[in-house]
Write a structure and sequence with these properties.
The protein is mainly alpha-helical and 312 residues long. The protein has two domains: 77 residues; 200 residues, Lysozyme (Orthogonal Bundle). The chain contains ten helices and four strands. The protein has a two-stranded antiparallel sheet with strand order 1-4. A two-stranded antiparallel sheet has the order 2-3. α4 crosses α10, α7 packs across α8 and α8 crosses α9. The radius of gyration is 36 Å and the shape is rod-shaped.
């Protein structure tokens, strides 16, 4: 049954029951004040009726009506409480709705591995999300930012390129031979060719021993795996990957995410400068790359990741 509470707690609305109580408290206080004022006004009329200013009956009637109204206000809740003692304890249960990542399943390309096991079949995006979350937090960057990079680079690892090792070898070099003008090279569409000689050397001297060259695929300039590392860039982070996982494979999803997170942290993400980190990851500050990355990261945070956590 509603309780009369101090004025400081008249409005305390957190659910249906407390809101009803608050409304009742407010209404009861308001009507009580009105009844008192009407009673005082009626008494004032009654007392002044002798001077002929007001009618005695009118004042008397006003006082009686005020008392009746007060009784009604007090009695109605008592009657309702007798009919159903729980009527003032109504609970409104609103289902808790949490946004989750859409149930999308990706078909990982041949050569991709997860925890050392080859994967060429479906992998739920929730599994990718949980892996990225754990690695990003360890590296000190925003999990949604790492996920956004993975999405923009290879659609969560779903497309890592279609060039085989042999196709890249047969394509020759497009850098004059010494690798000095790699950043100026523009390749024809769908042409498989090493970006520059030094990238091929980094792969063959430092990475080739850890992978099966007959199953892996590169993009047309030699970028590798879900996070699209160039071979020489990968070599710079392979020591940390090797220390953590006891092996180093850019086509291993967890290895690629870990190296990517370390690079993004080093390039500014750990200091909160995700735009610069995205620019350096791409190799140039291009709006068509950085804008989608930041937009996706913010969307993942607001729509899918609750307090930085992936759905279970």
């Amino acid at each position: 049954m509603p309780q009369i509470v101090p004025p400081s707690k008249l409005i305390n609305c957190t659910d249906l029951s407390t809101c009803f109580q608050a409304l009742y408290n407010f209404s009861f206080t308001l009507f009580l004040a009105l009844c008192f004022l009407m009673f005082v006004y009626g008494a004032f009329q009654y007392l002044l009726s002798g001077a002929g200013i007001f009618s005695k009956e009118e004042g008397k009637k006003r006082m009686i009506n005020s008392i009746i109204a007060l009784i009604v206000i007090l009695v109605i809740p008592l009657i309702l409480n007798l009919i159903n003692p729980q009527i003032f304890q109504a609970k409104l249960k609103i289902p808790k709705v949490e946004a989750t990542l859409p149930e999308i399943t990706f078909y990982m390309p041949q050569g991709t591995t997860i925890q050392g096991k080859p994967v060429s079949g479906p992998i739920p995006i929730g599994n990718i999300c949980q892996m990225a979350e754990s690695i990003a937090k360890e590296a000190g960057i925003r999990p949604a930012f790492l996920l956004a990079i993975l999405k923009v680079e290879t659609n969560f690892g779903n497309y890592i390129g279609g060039c085989s090792y042999n196709a890249l070898n047969s394509g020759g070099f497009r850098d004059g031979g010494d690798g000095s003008n790699c950043q100026l090279t523009v390749l024809p569409d769908n042409k498989c060719s090493w970006f520059c000689r030094r990238e091929k050397e980094c792969f063959e001297n430092q990475i080739k021993q850890y992978v099966d060259i007959n199953s892996i695929k590169f993009n047309s300039v030699g970028a590798m795996g879900p996070m699209q590392f160039m071979p020489c860039t990968w070599v710079g982070y392979s020591g940390a990957v090797l220390q953590k996982f006891s092996s180093t494979n850019p086509w291993e999803l967890s290895h690629a995410l870990y190296a990517g997170a370390l690079k993004l942290c080093k390039d500014g993400a750990c200091q909160g400068d995700e735009v610069t980190a995205a620019c350096r990851y791409y190799g140039a500050c291009a709006d068509y790359y950085t804008n989608p990355v930041i937009k996706l990261a913010n969307e993942y945070d607001s729509q899918y990741l609750k307090n930085g956590s992936c759905p279970q």
